[in-house]
């Protein structure tokens, strides 16, 4: 036990039991022992008595210690439920017939305060203004303690007009316990927005000085806006015609401003709105500088918005009908906010070059698409179509050929035209329509109709091709099956050649007959042969005079006869 002022001291905790040994040697001839305490004026108050002979204990009628005292056989005094009023000088007395021995003991009582709390907290703090932050309260301490304020773990030192601390200590007269109340007035800055304020109470216990800290408190610090910022809220990062634009304006104050003025290109005055302003289905004329400011027109920020666009003009477009051989200029022009790429598609196949028609052919017909995109702008794509129809009157070319089996001939009618012509066949004699013709696939305005015949005599076949534009008729002479044909004439002049060949064969037969009849006379035979050669030369030179040569030969034959 520590000594206080050279006297023996007992340190007790408030509410616990105080134990005080007598600290005197029991003398011989002891009659009794007594305990007393001293009043502030020095007068004694006896509280306990124990006889050494009768072994009985008596407690004096002192209200403060009623039912709280206990005196043991070795004269140790115990006081239950220690109170602040128990801080006294107690004296142990041992009495003999000859002497009285006394030994004083000092009692000290300590009470740990309740954990400190920050009460009456401000709802919020405002910068540049000294205001009450709160009160730190620590109750029921003994002896009295001290209170210190902290911010972010550092001691807040008093500073005029910035940190003002006032500490009050109030004692409860009935218990003698102290309540410490420390108020803090504080002028915050913007940096105190997330600062942690706390307080620590310092008190004394039986073993020395100790501390207890309160729970930290964070205050909402209000400060004015010093800067505004405008933002464009967009999912893709780029804006195209037809999109919606959401502008957001914000201020860095606390609380943040709720209303702003938005300045839109083409608008002379600012538009009052909340912190967001929405424009729907924007056009290219929405490109420009956008601004926002506080409602008092102070602190402005701006941003530039580009509304991307893409125009495509195809000339001609839609469905276009032209005649074969005609020219058709085609142009696909674009206008855009950035460089755009253009490509052509014909019948779902990408073209390597742009279409250009100086003389239209059937294979030029089809569905053309001119398409363009802005690759940097998601979803910005345009396309236009041209459905080109190339019309033409039916054109016919006929061919014939004797088949390898020598039993039939194949006659083909090659047809060009669009819309697809309908083909009919007729044959001389009956003039009936031949229904057994086979047609090839119609591709690029061309197809062919084929028939196989076995004529017993010379015939003429007629191919009739007809569409909405015109009806075209072409005929072809075909020899009997006994006369082979392998030529494939390109036009009707070949038919005339066939007639000449037939006539030449007839003349040769007649000449051979005449030669056999002339064998009777050698001289006549020689003359006949000579004249026959002369006639043959004339035939080779001029096929167009076959009829004349025939008549001349007949006259020669008559004279010879």
From TrEMBL:
Chain ranges passing through the membrane: 506-528
Pfam families: C2-set_2, Ig_2, Ig_3
GO cellular component terms, A-Z: axon; dendrite; plasma membrane
GO biological process: adaptive immune response; cell adhesion
Chief site of localization: membrane
Localization terms from the record: Cell membrane; Cell projection, Axon; Cell projection, Dendrite
Domain Ig-like: 104-213, 224-306, 325-387, 394-474
Keyword tags: Adaptive immunity, Cell adhesion, Cell membrane, Cell projection, Disulfide bond, Glycoprotein, Immunity, Immunoglobulin domain, Membrane, Repeat, Transmembrane, Transmembrane helix
InterPro entries named in the record: CD80_C2-set, Ig-like_dom, Ig-like_dom_sf, Ig-like_fold, Ig_sub, Ig_V-set, Surface_Rcpt/Adhesion_Mol
Bilayer disposition of the protein: Single-pass type I membrane protein
Cross-referenced PANTHER family: CD166 ANTIGEN, CELL SURFACE GLYCOPROTEIN MUC18-RELATED
Protein's UniProt name: CD166 antigen
Organism: Pelecanoides urinatrix (Common diving petrel)
Lineage: Eukaryota, Metazoa, Chordata, Craniata, Vertebrata
Recorded name of the encoding gene: Alcam
């Amino acid at each position: 036990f520590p000594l206080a002022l050279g006297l023996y001291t007992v340190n007790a905790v408030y509410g616990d039991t105080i134990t005080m040994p007598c600290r005197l040697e029991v003398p011989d001839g002891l009659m009794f022992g007594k305990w007393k305490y001293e009043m502030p004026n020095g007068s004694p108050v006896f509280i306990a008595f124990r006889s050494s002979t009768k072994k009985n204990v008596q407690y004096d009628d002192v209200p403060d210690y009623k039912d709280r005292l206990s005196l043991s056989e070795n004269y140790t005094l115990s006081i239950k439920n220690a109170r602040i009023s128990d801080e006294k000088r107690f004296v142990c007395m041992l009495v003999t017939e000859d002497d009285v021995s006394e030994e004083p003991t000092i009692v000290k009582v300590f009470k740990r305060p309740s954990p400190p709390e920050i009460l009456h907290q401000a709802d919020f703090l405002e910068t540049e203004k000294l205001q009450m932050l709160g009160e730190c309260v620590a109750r029921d301490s003994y002896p009295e303690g001290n209170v210190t304020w902290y911010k972010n773990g550092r001691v807040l030192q008093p500073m005029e007009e910035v940190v003002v601390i006032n500490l009050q200590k109030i004692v409860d007269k009935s218990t003698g316990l102290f309540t410490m109340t420390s108020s803090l007035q504080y002028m915050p800055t913007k940096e105190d927005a997330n600062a942690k304020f706390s307080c620590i109470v310092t008190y004394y216990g039986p073993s020395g000085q100790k501390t207890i800290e309160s729970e930290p408190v964070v205050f909402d610090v209000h400060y004015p806006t010093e800067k505004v910022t405008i933002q464009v809220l967009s999912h893709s990062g780029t804006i195209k015609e037809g999109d919606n634009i959401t502008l957001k304006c914000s201020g860095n104050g606390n609380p943040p401003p709720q209303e702003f003025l938005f300045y839109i290109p083409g608008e002379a005055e600012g538009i009052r709105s909340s912190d967001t302003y929405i424009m729907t289905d924007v056009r290219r004329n929405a490109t420009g500088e956008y601004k926002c400011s506080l409602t008092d027109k102070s602190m402005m920020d701006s941003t530039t918005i580009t509304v991307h666009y893409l125009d495509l003009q195809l000339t001609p477009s839609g469905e276009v009908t032209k005649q074969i051989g005609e020219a058709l200029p085609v142009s696909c022009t674009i206008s855009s906010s950035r460089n755009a790429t253009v490509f052509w598609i014909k019948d779902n196949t990408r073209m390597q070059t742009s279409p250009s028609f100086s003389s239209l052919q059937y294979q030029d017909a089809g569905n053309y698409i001119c398409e363009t995109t802005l690759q940097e702008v998601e979803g910005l794509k345009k396309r236009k179509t041209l459905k080109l129809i190339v019309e033409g009157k039916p054109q016919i070319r006929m061919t014939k050929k004797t088949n390898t089996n020598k039993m039939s001939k194949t006659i083909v009618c090659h047809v060009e035209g669009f819309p697809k012509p309908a083909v009919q066949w007729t044959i001389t004699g009956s003039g009936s329509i031949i229904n057994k013709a086979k047609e090839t696939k119609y591709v690029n305005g061309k197809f062919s109709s084929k028939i196989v015949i076995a004529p017993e005599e010379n015939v003429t076949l007629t191919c009739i091709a007809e569409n909405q534009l015109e009806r075209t008729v072409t005929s072809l002479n075909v020899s009997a099956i006994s006369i082979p044909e392998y030529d494939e004439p390109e036009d009707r002049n070949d038919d005339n050649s066939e007639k000449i060949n037939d006539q030449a064969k007839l003349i040769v037969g007649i000449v051979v007959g005449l030669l056999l009849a002339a064998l009777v006379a050698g001289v006549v035979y020689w003359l006949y042969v000579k004249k026959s050669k002369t006639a043959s030369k004339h035939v080779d030179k001029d096929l167009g005079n076959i009829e004349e040569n025939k008549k001349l030969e007949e006259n020669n034959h008559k004279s010879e006869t």
